[in-house]
Structures are given as C-alpha cells and as structure tokens.
Design brief:
Blueprint: E1 2-5, E2 72-75, E3 78-81, H1 82-96, H2 100-108, H3 112-122, E4 130-134, H4 140-149, E5 154-159, H5 162-174, E6 180-184, E7 198-204, H6 213-223, E8 224-235, H7 241-263, H8 266-278, H9 282-291, E9 295-302, E10 307-313
Region (Disordered): 1-72
GO molecular function, one term: 2-methoxy-6-polyprenyl-1,4-benzoquinol methyltransferase activity
Enzyme class: transferase
Length: 314
C-alpha cells in the first residue's frame, strides 16, 4: 500500500470557546509550470487552475524562518487577508460537515480508510497513553486510538470548527467511547493544552487548512512529551508526472461535480481541490517539521504520493 521514503534515520482543560487570532503564512514561492499539457486536454473547456503552493521549493535552508512575512495568505487560489482565512475555512467545513464521511468515501473510492489504518499502525500508540487528534473532524482516528489506549488512556479530539466537532462528538458517544474529550482548539496555538501533555499528536487531512503551518508545528512540538511522536497524514504531491496530471484533472473536474450532486456545494469542494495543490510537498513539509524542532523526521508516500504520512519525534 505504501512506499517508504525514510529521509533520516495529562490533564486537559475543555474551554467553552476558542478565539485566538489567525497567524501569517509562509511566503509563497513560484512553482514549476507542469500543467502546460493540460491546456490542450480534450476533457476540459479551459485550462486547469494554477496556484503557487505555500513554501514550495526544492530545498530549504536549515533554520529557515517562514513566519509573519505578509498580511495576506491564500484561500485556495484566492489571495485574502490573514484575518479572513480562518472564517472562510470555517464556512467551508460548516457546509460540508453533514456529508463529510460520505464524500470522503466517494472522493477516495474508500482508500482513505487504508491511509488512516496505515497511520494508526505507524503511531506506536500503547495502552494508557495520552493522544491528541488535531482537526479530528468526524473522529475516524480518535475512535481507533480510543480503543488502542484503553480505559487507562485518554484521547482528545480537537477541531477549530464546531460543526465538525459536533459530528465527531455524536459519533463517538454513540460508539460508547468514554475515554475521549472534545475540545475546540486552534491548531496554531493549541492554547487549551499544557506543555508536554501527550505521547502522540496526530493531524489527518487538516494541516493544509491551517493559515500558519509553522506556528502549528511549533505548537504540536510544545504539547508533546519528550520522546513523543507527531504524525501528519495529508494530501501531497504525486511522484509520477502522468499521475499528477491525471489527479489534477480529477480534482478540478470530478470533485466539484460530486460536491454539487451529493452535498449541494460545488464551491467548497473546488476550494478543497485548490487547497491540496497549495499544500507544501513532501520534502518541504519534512524541512518545516525539522525547523519546528522535530527529530528523525521521515515520510511515507501512499498511492503514488497522492497522500503522504510524515512522522517526527520530540
């Protein structure tokens, strides 16, 4: 299912609300023009949209600082004020929350379940441990970790979006999970949580929606115990150019159509496709993790690099 690229070798408060200000994003860098052939695709009436991925470049200097370099950021391919992005992302996930699981199954042909199972297998989670699942949404990972840590362990499902958090809460309560808490939290600060609180921190298909990814990585490092690990499961860059072109064609044509037919919302799924393209590639995200203080970072490509699982240790 995966091909590994190993590039290098408790308790908690539950706030009533969460209002930290959004942070600035890393500077944007030009991306190679790899979609020229798509302009002539017989399947399209116009070229596929283009965007410049955040922090995208082949290599980054050790210790590079991407923070606070401007007052604007991207929302998909649009440029918006930093303060606006969090609200716009919130509107997307308020819209898609009710059909989120169904759309995940349709969009990935069910393969997202295998991606998440692989992440759980690499988590190293053990009985009695403390786990934080950031942007946990409908609770797929939190449910699995709840069973893995057992009654002596503890899982926190956090999300900045109340609609998504409510879906996850209802689902896990129905499943009888008694060792899970549900916390509204901003990934950029993780303010509700004390330093060195968790053995494992995960974020699954959520990092690309965070405005200041570097701030979020530093916050994740802060709340991990020494020796703890971070897992980031996220869409990434396909390693084969023909697959990349096919994936772009699928993302920008089929996904909005599915969104319209199933969720009556094509624009949110167009944003989701754009946000995937704008997310840092595998090597860039690995470097960002190292800059945040993580050690022995590696990543594992799945489905030809459409998704990658990044791992780092404190």
């Amino acid at each position: 299912m995966s091909d590994s690229n190993n590039s290098t070798h408790n308790n908690l408060n539950n706030p009533n609300n969460n209002n930290p200000a959004a942070q600035n994003t890393p500077a944007q860098n030009p991306q190679d023009s790899t979609n020229a052939a798509n302009a002539n695709s017989p399947f399209l009436s116009q070229p596929l949209p283009q965007g410049t991925p955040q922090g995208q470049q082949q290599s980054l200097p050790k210790g590079a600082d991407h923070r606070n370099l401007g007052s604007t950021t991207h929302f998909g391919y649009k440029t918006v004020d930093v303060e606006e992005k969090q609200q716009k992302v919130a509107e997307v996930f308020h819209s898609v929350a009710a059909k989120y699981d169904l759309m995940n199954d349709l969009m990935s042909f069910g393969i997202h379940r295998l991606w998440k199972r692989f992440a759980i297998n690499l988590s190293g989670v053990r009985r009695g441990q403390q786990v934080l699942d950031i942007a946990g949404g409908t609770g797929d990972l939190a449910l699995a970790f709840s069973r893995e840590v057992g009654p002596q362990g503890h899982v926190v499902l956090s999300d900045i979006n109340e609609s998504m958090l409510n879906v996850g809460r209802d689902r896990l309560i129905d499943k009888g999970c008694t060792n899970v808490d549900f916390v509204l939290a901003n990934a950029e600060t993780l303010e509700p949580f004390n330093d060195e609180s968790f053995d494992l921190v995960t974020i699954s298909f959520g990092l690309r929606n965070v405005t200041d990814k570097d701030a979020a990585l530093r916050a994740m490092h802060r709340v991990l115990k020494p020796g703890g690990r971070l897992l980031i499961l996220e869409f990434s860059k396909p390693v084969f150019e023909p697959l990349s072109r096919l994936y772009d064609l699928y993302s920008f044509t089929a996904l909005p159509v599915m969104g319209k037919l199933v969720a009556n919302d094509s624009e949110s799924y167009r944003y989701l496709a754009e946000s995937i393209r704008m997310h840092p590639d595998q090597r860039t995200l690995k470097q960002m993790m190292e800059n945040a203080g993580f050690q022995s970072c590696d990543y594992h490509n799945m489905t030809g690099g459409i998704v990658a699982l990044h791992r780092g240790f404190k």
